Known about the structure:
The chain has about 70 residues and is mainly α. The protein has a single domain (about 1-65), classed as Orthogonal Bundle (434 Repressor (Amino-terminal Domain)), CATH 1.10.260.40. Helices cover about 50% and strands about 10% of the residues. The chain contains four helices and two strands, in the order E-H-H-H-H-E. The protein is globular, with a radius of gyration of 12 Å. The chain starts with a strand and ends with a strand. It comes from Peptostreptococcus equinus. It holds the Pfam family HTH_26. InterPro entries: Cro/C1-type_HTH (IPR001387), Lambda_DNA-bd_dom_sf (IPR010982).
Amino acid sequence: MKIQYNKLWKLLIDKNMKRVDLRRVTGISANSIAKLGKNEPVRMDVLMKIAEALDCKVEDLFETFKEEK
């Protein structure tokens, strides 16, 4: 399974926020932001901090799909 955080980036655009703003309001590390930008998995507590800061559900931040072989 692969993960994409396109929903998160669209949500940030809708809220007129940048990645640096997200980092500031959530307190998550620059490393976590980098992982999100590369569509790499991050810990659930990171996703929960983001969802709380953006007033949304965790499932509103990403989507998963099967990798084609």
